[in-house]
Hints:
It is built from 9 helices and 12 strands. It is α+β, with helices and mostly antiparallel strands. It has one domain: (Glycosyl)asparaginase (Glutamine Phosphoribosylpyrophosphate, subunit 1, domain 1), CATH 3.60.20. The strands form 2 sheets. An 8-stranded mixed beta sheet has the order 4-3-2-6-5-1-11-12. The chain has a 4-stranded antiparallel beta sheet with strand order 7-8-9-10. The longest helix has 23 residues, at about 45-65. The protein is globular. The termini are far apart. Aspartic acid binds near residues 186 and 208. Aspartic acid binds near residues 207, 238, 239 and 244.
Amino acid sequence: MSKLSVFLFILILMVSCQTQSQKPQWTIAIHGGAGNLDKNLFDEETTRKYEAGLSVALELGISMLENGASAVDVVEKVVNVLEDNPLFNAGKGAVYTNDGRNELDAAIMDGIDLNAGTIAGVGDIKNPVSAARMVMDKSPHVMMVGKGASKFAAENGIEMVDSSYFYTEKRWQSLQKALQKSGKNGTVGCVVMDKKGNLAAATSTGGMNNKRYGRVGDVPIIGAGTYANNKTCAVSATGHGEYFIRYTVAHDISALMEYKGMSLSEAAHTVVNGKLNSEAGNGGVIAVDKNGNFVLEMNSTGMFRGWANSFGEKGVAIFKN
Ligand code: ASP
């Protein structure tokens, strides 16, 4: 071998090592809802509370991923933490329907085999995303709703609660306000690429404040508010669900990558700030691709969000800039 070919060989080796090391071992992104948030309502203490709520969930995800947990386990457990925090509109902090009840929706999807589980319109399951996980793991179905979903969850050992568990003064008051005007967001979600390169997404919500009873949003509609596919990306959305359903937002992002060869950020931007806008489809998405890249794309003034990867990048934020 000539000196030149040895040199070229080493150079190619170095470049390929560097390319490989550009992919993080794992990546996680979370959200706690998006909307046109009013900065005046966020004094230092309120901001700190939201950031702390996001950080606790993010840290759990980071330690699980460091320890080699699967993407699907991570998205479920991280969403559980957000569901238990009354600040967010999911689980404990769910908003009310127009007639003063809580009807929760949730979804989980595994990018390995497109297996998915979702539940909708339940008012007695403490952690709806875990019931969705049961639907995925223990039933031949993808979606279960209402009483049937609750019965199935109870039979499978999911923690059931009295509907009074979901009472929070803040959400009750926002229903009272919304009965005069419009409502608030605050759905939660998590997307992950784990150490094996597998992707998963989970989303959980109380839905839209003051929604008509029986209304189901985008969250439990696979391809609208939640989607994961190892070939492309994992997406969890938050915002005005009716638009996210019409535009099949989460799957559209994946399809633009798969069929048009777009990058994750191009695809997310095209959908969230192209097809949707802050009037028709106010909200955002978090997403991670198969190379561990992540996006936090919104068309609203804010989205409660957090992100981290194995390179040590990490943060939480509320407002757009
Ligand atoms: N997308 C949810 C729904 O329409 C609400 C939200 O994300 O705030 O049910």
